[in-house]
């Protein structure tokens, strides 16, 4: 395959990032699949690399603490499957799981027939650094790459919380996070992705490609410190 050389859009993206205002009273924070099934190395059935876990958890914990302190709703969206549902929603998963069967005891079990993120399993638990804390909302009916399809998230956002901006964090950058950016934009939300709070088990190239696509086409890609600075101006 041909190696991609990124075009330099840094000046344009810097202008875009300086333009955006984020109203904390109209903003919700959504974590996507930040569970042990991806991030808990010993338990993960579809793990990201340990260095990604280390890179992502610290900034995510920091930002979630900031969001709660400023009364921004925090919603954790988590994939869970019943045994009879496993792999029915994504035929690629059944084949793709075999390619990572050598990584951990949990992934070896996956290759032998144990399903990823079965309801009630340890894989479905959030990483303890991230919550849930009192007041956090859990949406644990995610079945596909979509945070909306078959879940109550849209009702929460539009009816209960009445927000117009979503800050997205999670795994994987190029699948569920990017899908959330597309679908949230299509629903009229202003979308912000925290680049230091997302990662992918599919490789750094696809992680970077997804961030480029989101930043240039779908929303805003910023660091936790950049977003916290914008929010702090609003709450002072």
CATH topology: Rossmann fold
CATH architectural designation: 3-Layer(aba) Sandwich
Q: What is the number of helices?
A: 9
**CATH homologous superfamily - what is it?**
Isochorismatase-like
- Helical residue percent band: 40-55%
Helix/sheet category: alpha/beta
Rg, nearest Å: 17 Å
Strand tally: 6
Q: For the terminal residues, how far apart are their CA atoms?
A: 50 Å
Structure description:
The chain has a single domain (10-235), classed as Isochorismatase-like (Rossmann fold), CATH 3.40.50. The protein is globular, with a radius of gyration of 17 Å. The termini are far apart. The chain contains nine helices and six strands, in the order αβααβααβαβαβαβα. It has 236 residues and is α/β, with parallel strands linked by helices. The model has no long low-confidence stretch (mean pLDDT 86). It has a six-stranded parallel sheet. Strand 5 (190-199), helix 8 and strand 6 form a beta-alpha-beta unit.
Brief description of this entry?
The chain has 236 residues and is of the alpha/beta class. It is 41% helix and 16% strand.
What attributes characterize this protein structure?
single chain, 236 residues, Rossmann fold, six-stranded parallel beta sheet, 41% helix, 16% strand, globular
Q: In terms of topology, how is this protein built?
A:
Elements: H1 10-19, E1 27-32, H2 36-39, H3 50-69, E2 74-79, H4 91-96, H5 105-111, E3 137-142, H6 153-161, E4 165-171, H7 173-186, E5 190-199, H8 204-218, E6 220-222, H9 224-235
Helix pairs in contact: 7-8
């Amino acid at each position: 395959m041909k190696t991609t050389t990124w075009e330099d859009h840094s000046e344009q993206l810097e202008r875009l990032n300086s333009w955006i205002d984020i109203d904390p009273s109209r903003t919700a924070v959504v974590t996507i699949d930040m569970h042990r099934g991806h991030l808990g190395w010993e338990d993960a059935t579809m793990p990201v690399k340990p260095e990604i876990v280390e890179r992502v958890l610290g900034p995510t914990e920091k930002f979630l603490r900031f969001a709660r302190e400023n009364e921004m709703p925090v919603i954790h969206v988590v994939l869970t499957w019943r045994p009879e549902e496993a792999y029915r929603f994504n035929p690629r998963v059944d084949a793709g799981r075999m390619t990572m069967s050598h990584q951990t005891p949990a992934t070896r079990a996956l290759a032998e027939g144990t399903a990823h993120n079965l309801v009630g399993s340890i894989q479905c638990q959030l990483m303890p650094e991230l919550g849930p804390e009192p007041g956090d909302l859990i949406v644990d009916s995610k079945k596909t790459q979509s945070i909306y399809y078959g879940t109550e998230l849209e009702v929460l956002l539009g009816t209960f919380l009445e927000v117009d901006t979503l800050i997205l964090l999670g795994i994987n950058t190029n699948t569920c996070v990017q899908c959330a950016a597309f679908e949230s934009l299509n629903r009229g939300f202003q979308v912000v992705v925290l680049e230091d709070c997302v990662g992918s088990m599919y490789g750094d190239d696809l992680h970077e490609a997804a961030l480029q696509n989101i930043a240039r086409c779908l929303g805003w890609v910023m660091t936790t410190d950049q977003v916290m600075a914008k929010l702090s101006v609003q709450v002072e």
